[in-house]
Amino acid sequence: METTFISNDKIKQFIDRIEGDLYVPHKKEDYFQWQKYPSDYSFDGYRTILPPKFLFYSPQEVLVNKKVTKRTVMGIKGCDLRAILFLRKVFKEGDSIDPFFREDNFIISADCSEAGENCFCTLLGDKPYAEQGFDLNISTLDDGFIFEVGSERGKTLIEKNKEFFIDTSSEQLSLRKKMRDKVTKEIKGKKIKLDKKNLSSDAIMDEIKKCVSCSACTNICPSCFCFLLGEKKKLEKVRFWDSCQLPGYARVAGGANPRKELDKRFVHRLQCKFEYSPVRFGSVGCFGCGRCTSSCYGGIDFQKTLSKLG
């Protein structure tokens, strides 16, 4: 893909020219969070504490007369971009005007410059950087940033601001490769190869016993998409996030519940990610961000759980 370079002293001028709502990662203490620009920003490190799903797929939204907002999200990491592309497959087919997954949302992804404590994207066969689905992608170097063009819209934005950019040198591309290789090696562990026949509670009962059904894992997941419908004033239909890990998730009228037991709900989550999603959407539903492990009140290590199913 086509690349170009912008120096540290010009990047803010470029960002200031981006139209519409702009969200950037902001470093706070030892983690990253999304903030609306203007704000301090950092494209270093690894994924944000909350996934960008919160910007694309609201926890609660009115489904009629949706507010259409032009937005740019800058600094999305590879795992989160793959999750957004996955959610597009889930929602876009039936709603071509969805304000969160419309084609005119502008995405600028960014390479990871370090691995988070619970990251495991490479163990699922992915990379700590985006390879597709972005308009532009940022790779951080000491003296500036390599911008990789991923769409015609991305190319147009670069051309409109060409006074800020110069040609990328072979040395800079070599430095980018070294950085990518370094971060890839930082993500430790054995590659995960699931055997669908092992998707049973017996193999992971020790992990299941730790679960408290708090639903933190699904709420923090960048690709979970379950929802329920309700009504607000004036009979407005509202979509709320739901979680397959809550005891009442599968309950139907009359009180019957086919997944009342914790182990059934726990296994269902694994089946949804690694068995049902590949059939329905052509992709697994997990992208190795590790947020579920970081947020689990029971201390369940999702990577360890998956390794038991190989």
Strand ordering within the main sheet:
3-2-5-6-7-8-1-9
Supply Rg: 20 Å
User: What's the rounded overall pLDDT mean?
Assistant: 91
Order of helices and strands: EHEEHEEHEEEHEHHHEEHHH
> How would you sum up the global shape?
globular
The total count of helices amounts to 10
How would you describe this protein?
The chain has 310 residues and is α/β, with parallel strands linked by helices. It folds into 2 domains: 3-186, no CATH class; 196-307, no CATH class. It is 29% helix and 19% strand. Strands 3-2-5-6-7-8-1-9 form an 8-stranded mixed sheet, sandwiched between helices. A hairpin with a 2-residue loop joins strand 2 (21-28) and strand 3. The chain starts with a strand and ends with a helix.
Helix/strand layout:
Elements lengths: L2 E5 L3 H6 L4 E8 L2 E6 L16 H4 L3 E3 L8 E6 L1 H14 L14 E5 L25 E6 L2 E6 L2 H9 L4 E3 L2 H17 L18 H4 L7 H5 L6 E5 L5 E5 L20 H20 L9 H5 L6 H6 L3
Parallel strand pairs: 2-5, 5-6, 6-7
Antiparallel strand pairs: 1-8, 1-9, 2-3, 4-11, 7-8, 10-11
Keywords summarizing the entry:
11 strands; eight-stranded mixed beta sheet; 310 residues; globular; 10 helices; alpha/beta; 29% helix; three-stranded antiparallel beta sheet
Question: Could you give a quick summary of the protein structure above?
Answer:
The chain starts with a strand and ends with a helix. It contains 10 helices and 11 strands. The chain has helices at residues 11-16, 53-56, 78-91, 152-160, 170-186, 205-208, 216-220, 262-281, 291-295, 302-307; strands spanning 3-7, 21-28, 31-36, 60-62, 71-76, 106-110, 136-141, 144-149, 165-167, 227-231, 237-241.
